[in-house]
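Quick one, T. Sequence first:
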Amino acid sequence: MEGPREGSGAGGSGNGRAGVAARNSLRVLTLNIWNRHDPWEARLDLIRKGVRELAPDIVGLQEVLSYEGRSLADDIAEGLGYEVAFGPAHELGGGVLFGNAVLSRWPVARSQAFPLPTGETDEKRAILLAELASPHGVLPFFVTHLNWKFHHGAVREAQVAAVAEIVLREAPMEGLPPVVVGDFNAQPEATEIRFMKGLHALNQKSVYFADTFDQTGKGPGFTFDPVRNPFAAVTNEYPRRIDYIFVRGPDKQGRGKPLASRVVFEELEDGVAASDHYGVLSEISM
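Structure tokens:
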């Protein structure tokens, strides 16, 4: 949404690169950071605290602002041992860019942003690819953020079709299973999410990505929760799961199998939440 409104498993703490090699898996986090809405400094502290404690190997961030070569992702990553890649979706004016970002414990070998269909709306969306030099090999990691309005389902359908095409083109089947994360602004039963999970064809084409929370999480997994999150409450909307970690797998070697998943960043400190969204943390076999 936008506007005012090292143990194993996805629940343990890790010890960085050594822990990754030992557990032979990947810990992935996604979070829509709600750009720079106030109280940003307090929210930034909560986001940094959460990233430090959760110790993800890779983080996908949405609603990231960037100005003169430095982004909010750089502020989040500072001193935590991550490389940062930012991909713009559009310019807000005055040189400020709005887009997606990746934090990676491993070198970012290449990054590129690809525009997504707009459906003649005034929203401009993109998907960011970061090729990461992980201990397991080159890992294609994608972050995206789709149109947010309830009645833009047809636009999101066009966007997920484009996402699938881009992933297939940029992440060959013989490589490591690509991971696709982001704010899809659609519930699990929506056509656009069913398409990603191989349950619905679009334009006579179909794909399959494992929804990590669907396969290994517990409960409804609401990530936009106006009942409990004061920053989401101003929308007067209803709780739902709209943030996802997808992976194309498992492959014949067992890589890309969801192992664990849970919702994170749910806590309030002094009445402040980290964002208007909660995040998702998943562990995936590699």
